[in-house]
Structures are given as structure tokens and as C-alpha cells.
Specification:
The chain is of the alpha+beta class. The protein has two domains: about 5-145 and about 250-285, Clavaminate synthase-like (Double-stranded beta-helix), CATH 3.60.130.10; about 150-240, no CATH class. Helix content is about 30%, strand content about 20%. The chain has seven helices and 13 strands. The chain has helices spanning about 20-35, 35-50, 65-80, 150-160, 160-170, 210-220, 225-240; strands at about 5, 50-55, 80, 90-95, 115, 130-135, 145-150, 175, 195, 245-250, 255-260, 265, 275-285. The strands form three sheets. Strands 1, 2, 3, 4, 6, 11 and 13 form a seven-stranded mixed sheet that branches. It has a four-stranded antiparallel sheet with strand order 5-12-7-10. Strands 8-9 form a two-stranded antiparallel ribbon. The chain is globular. It starts with a strand and ends in a 9-residue tail after the last strand.
Length: about 290
């Protein structure tokens, strides 16, 4: 996996007394972009060719607030950061385990295993990319795995029922239940389901998450036939046990940017209530911005 080193400018702390977020975003994003244009263009090129890049941010004494702005500026150079949820509409999402959640949760709210998935698979237009920054790594476990779409297609060719699997992935619209935190009400009173194929017809884009489909089927079992359910579960078993994976464990001050349409990611369970990551999802419309 290719890596890029980035460092925060020494003068940045002098300007963070500003409280107007739009002024910070508009005035200083262009300065940051000019200073780091070469490195950011390299990130863009690696994403286009490899689908994933690791960023190593030089350690400094700056506050978390400054670091968060720096992460947003990076994503805003590469595309358009999007709002994470329908209520608070945050662009930067804290990923840390939460206690006593009484609703259909998403992976970023719990410390259990997060099986192979893409982000926003339940959305009509999943974001093209996401950035994942590690502030405090888990003391125990919390290892991530990445799977490329090309390796999934290679494994499908080896399966006895590979043609049936590919036809199912290309043609059948499976139901994805929206985790409660991303609904209009933030709780289980709002049941939202979106249907889509798992693979695009040209096999270049994928969306997938096992539990959101299973949750949708609990609510409406007739959304898939028995044969389609068997193929879906067979595909999950194939992903988990036979598809090639690359593992990575982020350290503090490291982040990944991943092509959300070409790679699936998986995180093992962990035991550390202090684990903290930041995530920003964004699309690839270059030079346009929501921050400004």
C-alpha cells in the first residue's frame, strides 16, 4: 500500500481563534491547498489507480479541532465532503463505541465485528470515497481488512455456481435497511429500506453489507426469493472465507482514504472504550465544495 506524508503548517494555530466555520473553510482551505498541492495531487492519482492510500500526518502539538479542519481540507481538495446523517448533518463523524444503544446500530457505534461492507450501501448514491483517521487506536484487536472488487470477481470465477452468483449480483435488487442513526428520526420508529443491485452491470462498482440486508429481510421476507437469499448468503460466506484480503492496523496520526465503490472493508472486534477514529465521506466532483 502506497503512503503519503503530510504535515500541518506551523502558522495554522494563529488563525484558529476564528469561530465562523465558513470563514475558516473558505479563507484557509485555498492556502492549505497551495502549500500541499503536490502531495494532494499524488493522493488523487493513487486513489484513481490503486483505490486506497495511507496518509501519515506528522505529529504535532496542535489540538484535535485543528486536526479535524486539516482532514476536512484534505477531503475538500479531493472532492465534496457529505453530511453523515439527516439530523445533525455532520461531515466529520466520531467513530467510538457507545453504550446502551437501543436501536438498529451501525458498525461505527459498537465494538463488535464489522463484517466486509461498503459505506452508505443503503443510500441511493453511496459516496465514492471516505477518509478514516486514527486518533486513539484500540489496545486489543481492531484490525482492518480490505478486499478489492477485482479479487472478488476472480474468486467468483472459481466457484462452481459462479455464473449464478454473478447474475444475482448484477441483476437482483437486494433490500438494505438504513441503520437508525441515519434515518430521519435517529431511532427505530423510522424504518427505511433502499433496494439496489450489489454489483453494477459493468462489474466496476460494488455496494454490500450483510446485516443491513438481513435486517431488511426480517421486516419484509418476501423482498427476495428463497433462491436469491441462498445466493446472497453464499456470497457472504465466500467473501468471509475465500476472497483475498489485505490487513492493516492504523496507528495514531495515520489515516486511510478508500475508494468506497471498489473496495470492501472489514474490522475485527476490539476491547477498548477509548478507541477513537474520525471518518469523512466525500464524492469525487473536483473543485466544487460544500464547505465553502
Amino acid at each position: 500500500m502506497e503512503s503519503i506524508h503530510l504535515s500541518l503548517p506551523d502558522w495554522i494555530d494563529d488563525y484558529m481563534y476564528l469561530t465562523d466555520e465558513k470563514i475558516i473553510a473558505k479563507k484557509y482551505s485555498n492556502i492549505i491547498w497551495d502549500l500541499l498541492a503536490t502531495e494532494l495531487d499524488n493522493i488523487k492519482e493513487i486513489l484513481n489507480t490503486k483505490g486506497v492510500v495511507k496518509i501519515l500526518i506528522e505529529k504535532s502539538e496542535y489540538s484535535e479541532d485543528i486536526l479535524k479542519w486539516f482532514l476536512l481540507w484534505i477531503c475538500n481538495y479531493l472532492g465534496i465532503p457529505t453530511y453523515t446523517d439527516q439530523v445533525q448533518k455532520k461531515m466529520l463523524w466520531n467513530i467510538t463505541p457507545k453504550e446502551n444503544i437501543n436501536r438498529f446500530t451501525t458498525f461505527s457505534e459498537v465494538d463488535g465485528e464489522a463484517l466486509l461492507h461498503t459505506d452508505s450501501q443503503f443510500s441511493p448514491q453511496p459516496e465514492h470515497y471516505f477518509l478514516l483517521y486514527c486518533s486513539i487506536p484500540a489496545n486489543i484487536w481492531g484490525i482492518s481488512y480490505l478486499v478489492e472488487i477485482k479479487d472478488i470477481l476472480e474468486e467468483i470465477k472459481k466457484e462452481i455456481n459462479g455464473n449464478d452468483i454473478l447474475k444475482f449480483l448484477n441483476e437482483v435488487k437486494v433490500p438494505f435497511r438504513v441503520p437508525s442513526i441515519f434515518t430521519k428520526t435517529w431511532d427505530d420508529s423510522s424504518i427505511e429500506i433502499y433496494k439496489s443491485t450489489i454489483l453494477s452491470k459493468d462489474n466496476k462498482e460494488i455496494r454490500f453489507r450483510f446485516d443491513t440486508v438481513e435486517e431488511a429481510l426480517k421486516i419484509a421476507p418476501n423482498l427476495l426469493t428463497d433462491k436469491e437469499i441462498r445466493l446472497f448468503r453464499y456470497f457472504q460466506e465466500m467473501l468471509e472465507h475465500r476472497v483475498k484480503k489485505v490487513n492493516i492496523k492504523l496507528k495514531s496520526w495515520e489515516c486511510l482514504i478508500i475508494d468506497n465503490k471498489k473496495l470492501l472493508h472489514w474490522r475485527t472486534a476490539f476491547e477498548d472504550p477509548n478507541r477513537l477514529l474520525y471518518r469523512i465521506r466525500f464524492n469525487n466532483n473536483i473543485w466544487k465544495t460544500k464547505l465553502c
